[in-house]
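Posting for a labmate who doesn't have an account.
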Amino acid sequence: MRLKELFAAKDMTQGAPWKRILEFSIPMLIGNLAQQLYNTADSVIVGKFVGDDALSAVGSAMPILNLLLALFVGISTGAGIVVSQSFGARDRDGLTKAIGNCIALSAIASVIIMIVGPLVTMPLLKLLGTDSSIIQWCADYLNIYFLGIVGFFFYNMLSGVLRGLGDSVSALVFLLVAAALNVGLDLYFVAALNMGVAGVSLATVIAQAISAVLCYIKLVKMRNLFDLNLKTMKLIPSTAGRILRIGIPSGITQAIMATAGMVVLNLTNAMGKTVVACNVIVMRVDGFAMMPNFTFGQAMSVYTGQNVGAGKLDRVHKGTKQGALLSLAFASVITLTLLFGGPILFRLFTDTESLIDLATRMIRIMAVGYICIAVTQVLGGVMRGAGDTVSPMWISIISTIIIRVPLAYWLADLTKSEAYPHGQPIALFGSLMISWVLGMVLSIIVFAIGGWKKRMMRSVATINE
């Protein structure tokens, strides 16, 4: 493959499905791992150079960040699906309108969060019972992030557009550049300038802005596929409405996950700073462990979207089976790594032996759940790519809000002791693993019922209008 072809849009409607899925997934997997480095570098650097309290501050800030950004992340998912379907249909005008509306929506969302974010940061931190010793650090981290949110929004939206076009390699390269810059700036701001938690937030904001600019430059050069200029960057009600109809349920799903995280964080905070720090480092490793699952879920959305656009529905069914096998293979390797290599990973974050031992016990409780998530993500990716983002939303509501949150509090009540007056940490991680297993069961049932197929046929009809 020539270099120019490597950085071009990829047609996933031709060739063996597993090959197209794997070719697309590997660069995206590396990119997702690099994305995870943003938050992980923050945690490693503040943990080593500032201390465990700073590590807890970064972790405590993340659920609030995820909640306020959740809806937009979902909308960017909808944008990627619309782009992939238009590309699969070879609809230049539809593709131009979709990309232009993506940029307009990003600008609007940026302004909203820059205003709302700093206003609600401290009230939310207090509502969650954030420890007084770290609450100001949490607020500093979040406020800097919100004020520099433009880079985050535009990178996520524009990289989603590139992936919808099948170009996961360009998004990877831009993200690797930004990730390297993020780590370098983290070290400079924290280790050299002693800026603490505020320094890692500033580093992330700068790195995301650069990656967004690189994505935009790449899209401007793809004139053979669509038009991108100031005239095309305007809201068109029909196109924006379609993006929002597909994206908002995904955004609600993300918000549900973030809300559940915040509710459980209140329980986590009550268990003390040691459990909070344990939760931070386990979730950082969890972020890496989840990457293959999320990657194959995203890949299946793009693969399905392109083939729905092209009207090749038989390839959707064939690709689902092959994509699921690929995802399960990666998840099995991850599970074995966590079972046997957990302590080695946790030493990257802290030298406190009791914290390492606690984190190791917790990650082993969760490990098998990653195989369940592999199935859930692939089936959810196919449903979203077909235009059905509502079914995955309901699965998320049931498994997270109805099952995980009440179960966590119930287990905490059952495990109260003198050492853990608010319950033991197994309540946090055991409830998460159980929700993953039940989420997989629900996904299989909903997928087999086949309501997503009706949505797929409506998507085909919309594209052909």
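Reply:
Got it, the structure tokens are right above this. The first helix runs from residue 3 to 6.
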